[in-house]
Design brief:
Elements: E1 4-7, E2 27-30, E3 33-36, H1 37-40, E4 48-57, E5 61-62, E6 67-71, H2 76-79, H3 82-87, H4 124-129, H5 131-140, E7 144-146, E8 152-159, E9 161-170, H6 181-187, E10 195-196, E11 199-200, E12 212-221, E13 236-237, E14 240-241, H7 242-246, E15 253-259, E16 290-301, E17 307-312, E18 327-333, E19 338-341, E20 347-350, E21 361-369, E22 384-386, H8 404-409, H9 426-436, E23 443-445
Parallel strand pairs: 1-2, 4-13, 4-14
Antiparallel strand pairs: 2-3, 4-5, 4-8, 6-7, 6-9, 9-12, 10-11, 15-18, 16-17, 16-21, 19-20, 21-22, 21-23
Length: 446
Amino acid sequence: MSKSYRIRTSPGVDKSINVNIEQDFEYLEILSLKLLQSDIYTRQCSDYGVVIGRVSVNNGFGIPNAKVSIFIPLESEDETNPIISELYPYKTLNDVNEDGYRYNLLPYTKSHSGHKPTGTFFDREDVLVDTNLIEVFDKYYKYTATTNESGDFMLFGVPVGGHQIVMDVDLSDIGEFSLSPQDLVRMGVATEQQVAGTEFKTSENLRVLPQIVNINKTIQVEPLWGQEELCDIGINRTDFDLSSEANIDVRPTSVFMGSIISSPDDSPVRRNCKPKGKQGYQCNLITNSGDILAIRQTIFQDSDGRPILESVDLGSSGGLVIDENGTWLIDVPMNMDYVTTNEFGEKVISNDPKIGIPTTGKYRFKVKWGQTSTLNEAVKRGYFLVPNVKEYGWDTNGAQVVNSTDAANSYAFSLDWGEYGDVNTPTGLAMIQEAIDCEDRFYPMV
């Protein structure tokens, strides 16, 4: 007995008809027409599949604006076509065009003010006005995608079988965490010779550009649907991890800048604390090199539930970051509020410093004038704690109102929270909490 389905519809009404049926039918009836099962499913396994994946960094953060494509070699019939072969000369991934560019998915147009275009990939307007580009795009870039804000991509309709999948990403063009030349130098990915100060260099040889990351893989695409006993079916997952595959570790920094000045040695503040008449005159001020020490809060907590503190080396010379002109400009690395991307593509906070990108920091600095640590010098200059908004222990008239311990705690520079306030007094506990909350003695940096 034949198995058929009648699909009811109203003549003269245009609409999309959705039905849910099993595949084991002989034919469908709609109006006066019949659709044979053999006409709908011409084979027992589909001849195409779907490739999805995520481009990520820092063990899970999805990277937007990465380009992904299935590489299709130049066909022999187009190799003799001078127009097509000039636009697309790539028979292998090692081939280059007449200008020396390898197969790439990078734009030749500028994306933003800090972006240096380095590729040859045409844009939408080019395809609309040039029929040759339309032909090339439809034939050789048919399976191409750009990752979304979550770093995800999908390539639909990819023929079943083995393919080479290509991923290109410009690290200076990945959204909110786009990297600068000095970021790559600090990360050890680039040298000063590979960048042009605050700008990236361009070149037809994309392999010498540190901001360009290219990863190629061989994948096997399985059918999207079919009979399980005859073929493997499913959605093909292919991810690209820039950390493990390209040694990229995104660590944002905040800028800390400033300067130190002082009066010359012959104009010190005397014991009576009365300054000389010309002390502080601009023409008399001097500068000097010096150190900056730093401590910061971490995402780990001690037994009392307070952030564990750690020392940080801000320079390769052990903190000697103030030059002879008394100025400094320091990249301060972030280490808190790590952000990663969850399964659903949402940005969430990570409690593991090995997962995600840090976005904030809480720092305290000690700025030191370059001088010996002994008391043998006739003139000594004080150090500065930054920040230091409040001074505990004194009222507005300079009279002491609480014990001297609270006054000393306001100048603490220690890895022990007990140095920032007396844990046995309400005032001391309030001082510690203010420091934790960056109301005083710690800077919130982003």
